[in-house]
Design a protein that fits this description.
By secondary structure, the chain is an all-alpha fold. It has helices at 5-11, 21-26.
C-alpha cells in the first residue's frame, strides 16, 4: 500500500530541508528507503538498503 507524503508526515514529521542531511545525500526521506531488496549483511546482520549499504558502514558484498 502506497501512502501519500502527507500521511507519512503525520507519523514521521519531515526535517527542514536546510538540515536534512539524508534528503540532500540520497534524494529521499529516510523513511522512504527500501530495505527489502537484498536481505541482511553477513558481517553486522543488519538490513541492506536499496543503495547496497548496511549498518557497518561499508558496501555489503
Amino acid at each position: 500500500m502506497i501512502e501519500s507524503v502527507a500521511e507519512k508526515e503525520k507519523t514521521f514529521p519531515s526535517v527542514p530541508y536546510e538540515i536534512n542531511a539524508h534528503l540532500k545525500r540520497f534524494g529521499k526521506e529516510s523513511w522512504e528507503v527500501d530495505y527489502n531488496l537484498f536481505g541482511y549483511c553477513d558481517m553486522c546482520n543488519s538490513r541492506i538498503d536499496e543503495f547496497g549499504y548496511c549498518a557497518c558502514g561499508g558496501a555489503a558484498d
